[in-house]
Amino acid sequence: MGEVRGGCCPPMDLFRSEAMQLVQLIIPIESAHVTVSYLGDLGFLQFKDLNSEKSPFQRTYAAQIKKCGDMARKLRFFKEQMDKAGVSPSSKPVTQTDIDMDGLDLKLGELEAELVEMNANNDKLQRTYNELIEYKLVLLKAGEFFSSALSSATAQQREIESHQVGEESLDTPLLADQEISTDSSKQVKLGFLTGLVPKEKSLAFERIIFRATRGNVFIRQSAIEVPVIDPISGEKIEKNVFVVFYSGERAKTKILKICEAFGANRYPFTEDLGKQNQIIDEVSGKVSELKTTIDAGLLHRSNLLQTIGDQFVQWNSLVRKEKSICHTLNMLSLDVTKKCLVAEGWSPVFASKQIQEALQRAAFDSSSQVGAIFQVLHTKESPPTYFRTNIFTTAFQEIVDAYGVARYQEANPGVYTIVTFPFLFAVMFGDWGHGICLLLTTLVFIIRENKLSGQKLGDITEMTFGGRYVILLMALFSIYTGLIYNEFFSVPFELFGHSAYACRDLSCRDATTDGLIKVGPTYPFGVDPVWHGTRSELPFLNSLKMKMSILLGVAQMNLGIILSFFNAVYFRNGLNIWFQFIPQMIFLNSLFGYLSLLIIVKWATGSQADLYHVMIYMFLSPTDELGENQLFAGQKMVQQVLLLLALVSVPWMLLPKPFLMKKQHEDRHLGQSYTPLQSTEESLQVEVNHDSHGHEEFEFSEVFVHQLIHTIEFVLGAVSNTASYLRLWALSLAHSELSSVFYEKVLLLAWGFNNVIILIVGIIIFIFATIGVLLVMETLSAFLHALRLHWVEFQNKFYEGDGYRFYPFSFALLSDEDE
């Protein structure tokens, strides 16, 4: 719900939602914009859509919304550009307040056009620059190919000539004549292509060319040491410079297609060494010029983005507010004179004075000759639900609202959830060592909440941060229950005094409690530490925690039924008091309230009675004697009376209520059959202010079936819900045993080796197991089980949860909404 700060409102009351009223505002058109703006600043009015039959394009302010949407698009474009350039919007307060929206639209358009043009020019220059860099690399690498080839060819020619001069024979003139007689016109002329190809594709590129030309090519490649920026994609890629020698136009055509397919960039190259050096000098000059030009452009662009960033927050806020104002104005209807706008909406009763003051300020500031009219309408429509929460109670209210928003002014379980939820969690998580770890973690969030609240956190971190005060109470209650269980990472401590028991002989630790004798006063707080480690530890703690779970469950279910009584009294529903609250209390407490009483009596008296036997034979053989299972005098008669009351309460819940509801409906319509005539204005007012809820049809069969289902659900649920609370015992046992296993089988086992390395490894494993399993998985498990106990076992006794949330028109909520 909304979060209200300051002293403007009455004291917070969470038990029932705020009293709401349906109000009507008649606003002159000339002051409508200012009025809605002031109401958005106030944030206490939820407007109703009075133009629901019209499409968005048929509404009055559709053009303004379209303009605001276009401005929001431009601002999103600016934000993207600032993020890319590393420019953050200025958080400094801006003194300028009055900005004309038309002028802002024009200014944003000019800035967008300038920025788009700068981006286009920069992209074009950057592409040319990257192409020249690649061209320069091709010139250098390919020049190395040709110079090395030329030098090797010259050396080979000299070697051949020296060989021929040194070893002349009779055959030499004949060979010389043959070379001379060769036809120069039939010599093969080779062509070549140069360029760059991505390194990862170079092998495939070479193989495809070889196959496509059937081996009639000669390819040389050389890797570039530093990745280069590709002119087309703009990404840094490792590339190879290639030179492909071929013969014939058909081979050239195939090679060109393969280059295009592999994304190889081709560049011209000349064999003349002089021209090569001249071209390299020209390219180097162009590269330096382009670098200077690009740097100047980027500086100008950065200055422009910085100018935009200085006012971005203010512009963005203005556009969002203007768009929300226009959306709200579209929900208002024109009156017949087309000079006023009529608005209807829900507001808390306590905010009436503030709304009227905002209307008066708006009329004065807009220089309107006529002020807005504020009046309260009477309606049978169900109002929205609004709880005023603070930073502490918001998370607990969200836990309840996740199940369903409370019906208007019904009892809010969120009040009790603040205590019962962390307490039931702690019953399952009881270990004061683990509780301290949780406490330290959540204190980090609480101490740094001002800093973290303005940051974008991950999903899990944000969820944990939002529930930091829930985790705080969970940790405190876990420390409390851990002290009761006397467990610190499963290790007991004598914090509150010495144990009341001592060993009779040396073998007593391996025996049952028969080996222990009481030598001192009872341990003052929690479980006596002597129980831990004995063979009877598990039976003793099982019995304790199981009975405690039943007591807690019956107490919370009784609280739920009592809250249904307060709901019935508040809504003046006598039928629910006499035929729902009373029989439900009788049924639940005749069975499980009696069981809780037996548990307390057994604890107080130290009796050895078998409570399973007592409860089973209370149903199977209510007239049999209890014998050694009798806990108090007259127990047999009490059980028979309680069993009879439980049996009577079932038809008590089922039968009377549907018939009495039918009679009430008939009497109500009989009284409405004859009514005095009203004037035209009064009848019109009745039609406006009352909808057709007064003439609903009464289906007796539907009501009876609904009551039958409700009765069966409660009777069966009383058993299943009580059994469901045994999860408190089961999870507490699982947590304790897991903690004990990690301590004994990891930490103590590593300690027993008397080896420092093994000990360090054991401590690391123990820490990770404790954090991963006990502090994360077990916390989540206990949280979900506590959530289920509240949603199902507690809230289904009284909570309807079919209301709808109060969403006021408020500028403070705009920052949490996506565009």
UniProtKB/TrEMBL annotation:
Keywords recorded for this protein, A-Z: Coiled coil, Hydrogen ion transport, Ion transport, Membrane, Transmembrane, Transmembrane helix, Transport
Q: How does it sit in the membrane?
A: Multi-pass membrane protein
Annotated compartments: Membrane
Residue stretches in coiled coil? 101-135
Q: Which residues cross the membrane?
A: 423-447, 468-485, 548-569, 581-605, 637-655, 756-777
Query: What does the record give as the function of this protein?
Result: Essential component of the vacuolar proton pump (V-ATPase), a multimeric enzyme that catalyzes the translocation of protons across the membranes. Required for assembly and activity of the V-ATPase.
Q: What protein family does this chain belong to?
A: Belongs to the V-ATPase 116 kDa subunit family.
PANTHER family in the cross-refs: V-TYPE PROTON ATPASE SUBUNIT A3, VACUOLAR PROTON ATPASES
This chain's protein is named: V-type proton ATPase subunit a
The organism encoding this protein is: Hevea brasiliensis (Para rubber tree)
